Amino acid sequence: MLKIAVLLSGSGRTLDNFHDRINDRSLNATVEVVISNVADALGLEKARKYGYPAFHAKGNEATNEIINKYDIDLICLAGYLKLYEPPVALKRSVLNIHPSLIPSFCGEGFYGMIVHRAVHKRGVKVSGCTVHFANEVYDEGPIVVQKCVPLSDEDSPDDIAHKVFDAECLAFPEAINLVAEKGIEYFWRPK
């Protein structure tokens, strides 16, 4: 069972998903701490309601000071809107979810609705999400899980966002379970 830290910047919808799946025993993890770079993030309020230690921290140094107080196997970026640099001991242990099928619609500046508007504007017929290990470059680390969703010509960016989030709710727990099963280094091995 993996002990995870959850980093978020917003509403905590992904934290809700983790919490529900931990409770129904379909996620092989425990949430040890939740940290947000936004002081009044709804996700922090939810974390406290769930009984998780929850903190606001500005920047990597403050975030890592908190993380170092806990026994953490995996750091999950759950809508964390900053480039994160983990403690050295956890350098390869940061898992991120991105709202597109990497390598499309990714990289610096591509997040949230920006991605879904770009997908809509380009007129692609499928989108989806990618769970990947994070490194020092946006959306470049090893891919763990991807989920594809079909799009129709009538889908608005909001429709695309809803479809992709539904896929994220499956993909992120699946990825965490795969990491628990195979180990972190399995995904960093040379291809």
End-to-end Cα distance, whole Å, is 26 Å
**In which order are the strands of the major sheet placed?**
3-2-1-4-5-6-7
Give the beta-strand count.
Answer: 7
Strand content: 15-25%
Order of helices and strands: EHEHEHEEHEEHH
Give me the Rg, rounded. Answer: 16 Å
Structural class: alpha/beta
CATH level-two architecture of the domain at 1-91: 3-Layer(aba) Sandwich
* Uncertain stretches of 5 or more adjacent residues: none
Oligomeric state of shown chains: single chain
CATH topology of the domain at 1-91: Rossmann fold
* Fraction of helical residues: 25-40%
The CATH H-level homologous superfamily of the domain at 1-91: Formyl transferase, N-terminal domain
Average pLDDT reading: 95
Shape: globular
CATH uppermost class of the domain at 1-91 = Alpha Beta
Major sheet: size, sense and barrel closure?
7 strands, mixed
Number of helices: 6
Label this structure with key terms.
alpha/beta; Rossmann fold; 6 helices; 7 strands
Walk me through the topology.
Blueprint: E1 2-8, H1 13-23, E2 29-36, H2 42-50, E3 54-56, H3 59-67, E4 74-77, E5 94-98, H4 112-122, E6 126-133, E7 143-150, H5 157-182, H6 184-188
Helix pairs in contact: 1-2, 4-5
